[in-house]
């Protein structure tokens, strides 16, 4: 007996013979069939056995047989069928076709599952519409898609779309149940297993575990992590994104390798975006390009992931010792604790200049955080066990031309590659398909034709490949692009570009004008137009300032040019002066209603502040280093950056004499802050600044209190304690306020009470010491709360401190006063 194939359908090889719809021999074994004679081979790509009732040998109506002769490609005029993977080639194993075209063997395991030849147009249009809607995060389309799947239960692409939609909506369990229904239906009706795409999706669903997956596009919650929105379109690399997406499900460390300018950073972010919804721990980007000290890599990653050093304070030596007993002092320890959250992706970007430190940190984190996956970008492998290397190849010429067309049209409206295809192809080819180089070329289209650009590139490549060139060829090629761009600048633009290389993490316009000169505004605008400087809008609307940064390769090139010009010392001095002043004038704002804005400002410029401190230490400029470090002491305290503060204080202390070495110079009254005026400092102000940096270092040693119990340390503590007399005005302010800490460590608690009382009396008598009074009252409340007979005094001090902090608009102080009042009332 035979089953008719149905009506005449177009054969994918162009055959319209009725024989395509003639007779199909019944399968010789379950789920497979043999090619038959007398018909077009195009209809034998893969046939399934006639449907039968599960568990029986009964045969349904003959006309229900399925002939899978359609190629599965969308009809002309419609887009590709929505899927998370790019369309694959129609066939991977072939047998000769009667129509003269190869076709897949019906028994080939790689033969694709295709949509039936008689697929209604409305059906495919509906699936495409649902796919587009779900890709945009519109979960409301899911019920209608489910109904469509129920109407066509054997359509695997449609079922795949539904399972992906359930996964993206956080309904993993439902997706697994739906897969099981599809698998059972295919086995019962067609006697076959789900196709490779469904099986791959099933494995991915199993890997998600029992936890919920945040829904995409719901608009009800922000994604976890710090990935920023990209400002330009992403051209090509669809296959690379899908490959990396698969790599991240099978390997815990994936490193994107390639030359500078190959697009590793952007590709890593685009690939991470595709898996973001499946990661409860989020996607976190740590940019290592601004880090020039390998030892600072853990701190840089800590800052990127939002981890902070935190210490809970008690009052008295025993209270502090107990509070910090379990503290994690090592930044790697804190980072490991932070990254222990389930299913988290960490992107380490630009590892090549700190590759050893990045490798050590990565290996440690992966060993200690089972739910962590790392995606790194570098010019060389990290060399960590289990690392999966994924080379980022140059763009193929068709994709490179698309990128040139897109960026060129943005630079010069009306630009079309088709107007001069030979010159455009030559540009892409000679720039090795590197996205950065192509974008720089597109920027020049504002003033040059493609032919002019191609001719100039030819000259620059010959220049860089001749003479004494010791760098790698790929670096020479990238240098040629930047050299060529450099030649198009006038002298003012070159001077600004050189000086911009001293910034770390970018800058705003006032900083650029301070370091590059008053003519920076016009030159900076030109450099932005030429794509040598990236202008980014502020992260928060309240910031109000555009940020400017150099691309990594351009920054390296500009730094070399700065060295050649002999202007580096002047540029670094201007950078140090500007950011010392920024910290100095921002510090007082941390104690009033502008506190939050001041914190944001210092955080935004923190990489530059670090660089300025590094410049001051390298120059051995004690006064600049003292002023900058003392201006950051309260910020470090508020943000709990104690370890970093201790390290910087130690560096600055080494630049000058120890003020607590015998014979000790007794402290004289100093009514002004050491940072009220910029350097130079003179007389007692300079000595007080030196004493202040030592006191700040002492306060940061709260996690090593045992180190102060040996006889030598106790002698130094007693020296510090007797250097000051009660009632000195500098004892009411930071850092002199930290003198109390030295007295406490000596164990003289009776003297400590007298000192606190005298300090508060001084604050009440001196004008302009309101914040200092609130701080002293809060500290005394914490101290008095340790004794039940002093609890009433502690409560009164806390209440008065709270009232002053609130009047001053100091939210941080208000929280501290509330904590002190709670401790007092608890007694």
- Give helix % range: 40-55%
The number of helical elements comes to 32
Shape: globular
How much β-strand is present in the residues?
5-15%
Biggest β-sheet: strands ordered side by side in the sheet: 8-9-10-7-11
Total domain count = 6
Give the C-alpha Rg: 35 Å
Count of DSSP E strands? Answer: 13
Unreliable segments (pLDDT under 50, ≥5 consecutive)?
Answer: 1-123, 210-220, 310-327, 459-477
Note the main sheet: 5 strands, parallel
Distance N terminus to C terminus? 95 Å
What's the average pLDDT? 76
**Which class best fits the helix and strand makeup?**
mainly alpha
Region (Disordered): 24-130
Biased composition (Low complexity): 91-125
Domain Bacterial transcriptional activator: 101-206
Organism: Streptomyces viridochromogenes (strain DSM 40736 / JCM 4977 / BCRC 1201 / Tue 494)
